[in-house]
Every structure is written in C-alpha cells, then in structure tokens.
Inverse folding.
C-alpha cells in the first residue's frame, strides 16, 4: 500500500513526499481510511509507529474537504507534555504547509498572553496540554463550541501524570457531536472506562501488543557495579563512537550530576528534566537534535514526547521503577522503521527491576559483560518467573547472590516503587 491509495489530496501527498516518506506505516494504513470515513477510533499504538501522521493527515484532509473562510477551532489534540505538544503542532504545520490552516500550541511554562494574541487572530487546530487548556477555558480566551474532532494522544501517559480529572473538566466545554480519536500504548481499566464514556461505536485498531517494543530495537544489558556505571558509560561513548545518545536517569539530581561529570570527561552533555525552564528545555532539545550536544541526560519526562529522527542510542543509566516506562524509554530509538540500540547499565541492586521488565516483555534481555568492567556481583541469568502470591512472607524475589538475609527497608532500593507524580503544564 502507498499513500496514493489512502484518499489524500495532492497537497498532502506533496508534503509527505517532501519529508521522504513513501509507504504508510501499519497504524497509518488502518487509521487514515477509517478516520476519513468519520469513525471514532480507539487505537493501541506505541511511540515510533507513525501515529501522529495517522491522525494529522486525515484531519487535515477533512478540514480541506469542508474548507471555510471563517476561522474557528475545529480540531483539538490533547497531549500529556509540552514537548509532545510542540512536536505534534509542528507535524500539523509540516503536513499542512500547502494548506491555509493555522495551528496553535498551548502549554505552560511560557507566556499565556502570547498564546491569547494568536488565538484572537483565529486558529483551526489547537494542540494543548490539559492544564494550560483549562487556563484558557477559564479565562474564556478559547471557544470550543464548534469543535469537530477531538484527539486524545498518549492517553495512558495522561493517566499516569494525573490529568484524567482535568480531561473530564475539559469535556464539559465540548459539543457532544464530534469525532473522537483515542491513541494509547496501553489500556488500563481507567483508560478503558474513559473510552467507553467518550467513543461512539469506535473502530478498534491494534498495531502491536501493548507491552511489546519496536521490533528493530536491539536490547542489551551491560552488567556493571553501581560505582562504575558512569565510567562504563564514558568508555562506551568514546570507544564505541556513540553520538547523539539519549541517557535516562531516574532523578533530576542524578541527571544534572551525570551531565556535569560527562562534560568534565570532555563529552558535550546537557540535562533535560522538569526543573529546567521551558526555554532551557527547548534549547537543550534543539541543540541535541542539531547534533551540537552529544549526550542528553533526561528523566522520564522525556520518555514520551521526544521525537528525534535516526536516534541511534538510548541508554538506561538507571532502570525505571515502573516496567512500562522501560518500553517508552527505548521507544525513542528505532522510529519510523529505522534501527536502534537500547543499552541498560544494570547493577546487582537493580535485579528486581530487571526481572519486572523481563516479565512484562515475556523474554530475557541478552547480557553482555564489557571487558575491564566485570561486575563483582553477577545478575541472575535465569528467565524471570511469575511472582508467588505470598506478600509479606519471607524474602522478596530479586536481590543478588551473596546478599545478606532479611528484607531491606521499604524506604530504600527498588522494592519501594515510586509512582510518577503529577507534572505541571
């Protein structure tokens, strides 16, 4: 199948060709015709599958089919993060560059007055984070009464970040008659309930298992002592010639510290996390995309919403507490059919976290010991086993061989799984 068979206008096909795309991805093949038919959509699609184009292209086609000289907000796309809002907005502008429609992105951390001024001039498409959108609705600087299409992108991530209540508030401002498109990598019961209340006889699309990772991502574990992780990362970057490396740290402090240490080693590195101002984050991301920065050390705020073409390396300096976040992290590479590698530097104290990730993936990730960095305490190599239903009895699964007896304090280590906090917009 080619884009020529999907019912898109010459203007849209020209924009697609200018981006170098020839064949639609699986999600695009299934979603574009169905959206053009006016169906509600409930799509299970991970990052890197081309899902933004899967809804942006048919929405632009729909607007073009019913073009009007009077500007009003006809499409609303809700996303969880500022970065994703910016990138989705850029996609609409890029695909619609030969059309007359205006797109506005609304998110926190920047002047609301500038956004209000743009809205006053009239826009057709709004891409927004929930918090900032509610600010505009409360100030009555945005009218959604004539909305035709609503898109919820990364719905499960919005649930993780605590935005479901805000989304339900936003629904009160929207007309009941509209086309609704919901995209989510996973479908926990809260998202399923939201879909049931919002969607009208939706077309269900599932392009990959909700817990699978991109086929072209080569995953590998480098076992290493915790105290030598930074040394091993430096060695890999220099000796293996890694460039444009996205490194995930579990904490903001850890991201700052690692970026500083790498810089002292002569590696051009920068940190990217929620404590940075929006202008700092925008600049850091731009420098990384432009290859001015070799390494970007990020917290999980970047796990979804960063779209970098041909990103070759993703490194988990720390494994995430939530197994699903591993999938979203490594989904930053091997996008749009490209190949990529995801390396995890795993110390013995992270064995439990690794077991949880492998249980989710339903497979064991290959181990590779780097010469000169042999760990003093080895990770267990047997395939992950199901957890017994005996909470509170005996020692928890995981740990490492030779560990002392007894259960560690719940306030320390990977046994205490921190849940993501609500991020401000």
């Amino acid at each position: 199948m080619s884009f020529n068979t999907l019912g898109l206008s010459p203007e849209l096909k020209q924009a697609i060709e200018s981006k170098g795309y020839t064949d639609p991805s699986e999600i695009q093949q299934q979603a574009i015709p169905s959206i053009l038919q006016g169906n509600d959509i409930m799509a299970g699609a991970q990052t890197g599958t081309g899902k933004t184009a899967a809804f942006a292209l048919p929405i632009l086609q729909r607007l073009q089919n019913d073009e009007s000289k009077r500007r009003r907000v006809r499409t609303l796309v809700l996303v969880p993060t500022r970065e994703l809002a910016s990138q989705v907005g850029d996609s609409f502008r890029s695909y619609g560059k030969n059309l007359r429609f205006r797109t506005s992105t609304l998110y926190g951390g920047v002047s609301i007055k500038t956004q209000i001024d743009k809205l006053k001039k009239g826009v057709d498409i709004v891409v927004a984070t929930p918090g900032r959108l509610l600010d505009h609705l409360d100030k009555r600087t945005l009218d959604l009464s004539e909305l035709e299409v609503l898109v919820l992108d990364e719905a499960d991530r919005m649930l993780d970040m605590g935005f479901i209540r805000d989304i339900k508030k936003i629904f009160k401002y929207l007309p009941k008659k509209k086309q609704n498109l919901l995209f989510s990598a996973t479908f926990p019961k809260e998202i399923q309930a939201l879909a049931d209340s919002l969607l009208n006889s939706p077309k269900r699309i599932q392009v990959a298992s909700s817990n699978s990772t991109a086929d072209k991502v080569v995953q590998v574990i480098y076992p290493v002592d915790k105290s030598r992780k930074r040394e091993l990362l430096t060695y890999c970057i220099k000796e293996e010639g890694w460039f444009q490396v996205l490194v995930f740290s579990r904490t903001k402090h850890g991201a700052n510290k690692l970026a500083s240490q790498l810089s002292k080693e002569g590696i051009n590195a920068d940190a990217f996390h929620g404590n940075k101002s929006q202008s700092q984050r925008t600049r850091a991301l731009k420098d990384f995309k432009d290859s001015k920065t070799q390494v970007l050390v990020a917290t999980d705020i970047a796990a979804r919403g960063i779209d970098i073409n041909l990103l070759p390396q993703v490194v988990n300096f720390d494994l995430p507490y939530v197994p699903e976040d591993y999938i979203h992290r490594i989904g930053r590479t091997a996008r749009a059919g490209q190949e990529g590698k995801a390396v995890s530097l795993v110390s013995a104290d992270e064995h439990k976290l690794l077991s949880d990730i492998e249980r989710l993936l339903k497979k064991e990730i290959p181990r590779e010991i780097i010469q000169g960095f042999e760990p003093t305490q080895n990770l267990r190599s047997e395939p992950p086993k199901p957890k017994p239903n005996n909470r509170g009895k005996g020692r928890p699964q995981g740990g490492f061989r030779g560990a002392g007896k007894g259960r560690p304090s719940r306030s320390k280590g990977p046994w205490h799984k921190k849940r993501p906090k609500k991020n401000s917009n």
About this structure: The first strand starts at residue 41 and ends at 44. Confidence is low (pLDDT under 50) at residues 381-387, 389-418. The chain has two domains: 3-206, 211-419. The radius of gyration is 22 Å.
